[in-house]
Specification:
single chain, alpha+beta, Beta-Lactamase, Ubiquitin-like (UB roll), seven-stranded antiparallel sheet, 8 helices, elongated
Length: about 260
């Protein structure tokens, strides 16, 4: 920092900016090799919003490498940069979980990321730069998928209603890919209740726990796949449904068992 602010040479110890950047790059590279879940470390100049250094896994066979000067990008229009610039010292910005983007385009093959960033302040109290860690979320989401009970299904959605995890991967990250699949359309009874502020009981949202077992008061629904543990044939014959697996064919009324 001191070297860059002084025009290229640290006024305290006489070390050049180039040497400081080499030391910082080596430190980032070592940390990245030790932490496989991290995809990249990046330091951005607060003045021109351009990357000063970026260490990532874009080398041959995913090896850690220092991005060459020609590949360093401007991050000024990115939300993670703009939001981090508003923070006080010690505060951390955490991005939404989304697909990785490079040069304003979604990178292929697609892979989900989470960005954490914090501002770095100069001695004069002004923001010198922004430090960003990009986390590869594929291992975490794969662990979620693998935790589904036998015969069960797991769904994870974000605050926009997009699926982050779905039994059919083609339905994940729909908004970003132009093929949005909103969970509310797939689970209308549950969505209507929750959107109305009704504390409707639910648990797995995959037809396995039975927490959303309800009476179908009137109307007609189709039941998507579910476990007989959650809803037996005898219960179904008595007009019980699982709200999380019921798709209405017409206007219908339901009431949960406690009602």
């Amino acid at each position: 920092m001191r070297a860059r602010l002084a025009g290229g040479v640290d006024t305290v110890n006489g070390v050049s900016e180039a040497i400081w950047l080499e030391r910082l790059t080596n430190g980032f590279s070592g940390a990245l090799r030790a932490k496989p879940v991290y995809a990249s470390f990046c330091l951005i100049d607060a003045g021109d919003a351009r990357e000063i250094i970026r260490v990532d896994r874009s080398g041959p066979n995913g090896e850690v490498r220092n991005a060459p000067e020609a590949e360093l990008q401007s991050e000024g229009e990115q939300a993670h940069f703009k939001e981090t610039m508003k923070l006080a010292a010690g505060e951390i910005y955490v991005s939404p979980l989304d697909l990785n983007r490079e040069s304003s385009a979604t990178e292929t093959p697609y892979w989900p990321t989470l960005r954490m960033a914090t501002p770095i302040f100069a001695p004069n109290g002004k923001v010198f730069g922004v430090f960003i860690v990009t986390v590869d979320m594929r291992p975490a989401l794969d662990r979620v998928r693998s935790s589904a009970p036998e015969g069960g299904q797991i769904y994870v959605v974000n605050d926009r209603g997009d699926y982050l995890v779905h039994p059919n991967p083609a339905r994940e990250f729909g908004t970003e890919l132009g093929t949005r699949a909103d969970w509310r359309a797939d689970f209308p009874f549950l969505a209507t209740a929750l959107d109305a502020g009704i504390s409707y009981p639910f648990g797995c949202q995959s037809g396995n726990c039975g927490a959303c077992k309800s009476h179908l008061v009137n109307g007609e629904v189709a039941m998507e796949g579910y476990s007989e543990f959650a809803l037996s044939d005898e219960e179904k014959a008595r007009g019980l449904i699982l709200a999380c697996r019921a798709v209405p064919w017409q206007d219908s009324d339901v009431a949960w068992l406690e009602a």
